[in-house]
Amino acid sequence: MLENDIERILVSEPEIKAICQRLGEEVTHDYRNKKPLIIGLLKGCLPFMGELIKHIDLYCEIDLMGVTSYHGGVASTGDVKITKDLDASVLNRDVLIAEDIVDTAKTIDVIRKLLLYRGAKSVEVITLLDKPSGRIVPFEPKYIGVTIPKEFVVGFGLDYDEYYRNLPYVGVLKPSVYKK
Length: 180
Ligand code: IMP
Ligand code: MG
Description:
Bound molecules: inosinic acid, magnesium ion
Number of helices: 4
């Protein structure tokens, strides 16, 4: 049913698994002797964070923050709204923010600055997808799963109007779906 709306698969299920394994090993190496706080940005982070943390062999904590910037369309409004705040304090913590995708980087810019303002010792970003062609704010995530072209994608956490997050892969949505 959902797959009828997909033009083509961009990152397959086995590719995502391999990416998460590679990223998890890098994080495990880089944060050895530390106890990072991994903060997922809801809701898109969920499948990625779930797969990623299986490959992180550290005493890490996880927390979640609800953030939205789309309000229904296919372009970020840049109006970043926090819909759920953290449970944990970030004071003196090594924070790793887990994102589904960095596009304009407006979301990550706002959240990074907020967490630093709240006293985090370090704030790095790990993202499944990077769309550098979309940048408005200059920013390069420390950990990138895969760099993708300037296309609107859905699946593995990424939505269009809250749908398609449950697809097990990342695919390009048929433009006819959002031009209806
Ligand atoms: P940014 O603030 O433009 O970097 O956007 C980050 C957020 O926009 C991501 O967490 C996604 O929720 C959403 N986003 C950006 N590009 C896409 C896309 O191609 N498909 C679905 N959501 C996207
Ligand atoms: Mg998101």
